[in-house]
Amino acid sequence: MRRRPLQCPFCDNYLAPPVDISMKALEITGGICACGAVYALDRMGHNLGEVFLDALTFACKGDIDKAMALTPEEYETETLDYDVHTNTVSRRGGRGGRSGKIIFVRLKDK
Ligand SMILES: [Zn+2]
């Protein structure tokens, strides 16, 4: 499977490696794309549900109540396998479950 540089799945921007970010009560490792999408890293790929919620909250600028109230029609999301050492991603389906995952969330325009 071909690996490619970390890129936004919504606008194809190349992205910086995830960094530690604190926002209100939220602490995530991730970043923000120029198109408004956010991304969050799950280093071991074991906490996807939690990291997904963190990403949603991050997309809502730290407002967890707003994040919890979102319906699936109100955002787009994409999960990719991520290699922290090379800052590259691949579509899921890689060998084993040990790779990190990176979750993208973008709120749709109302
Ligand atoms: Zn983007």
Strand % is 35-45%
Alpha carbon gyration radius: 13 Å
Bound molecules: zinc ion
Structural class designation: alpha+beta
Helix tally equals 2
Domain count: 1
How is this structure best described in words?
With about 110 residues, this protein is of the alpha+beta class. It has one domain. It contains two helices and seven strands. The protein is globular, with a radius of gyration of 13 Å. The mean pLDDT is about 90. Bound molecules: zinc ion. Zinc ion (ZN) binds near residues 8, 10, 11, 33 and 35. Zinc ion (ZN) binds near residues 11, 33, 35 and 37.
Summary?
With 110 residues, the chain is α+β, with helices and mostly antiparallel strands.
Topology summary:
Layout: E1 4-5, E2 19-23, E3 26-32, E4 38-42, H1 48-59, H2 64-69, E5 75-83, E6 88-90, E7 100-107
Antiparallel strand pairs: 1-6, 2-3, 3-4, 4-7, 5-6, 5-7
Question: Main traits of this protein?
Answer:
alpha+beta; 7-stranded antiparallel sheet; 16% helix; globular
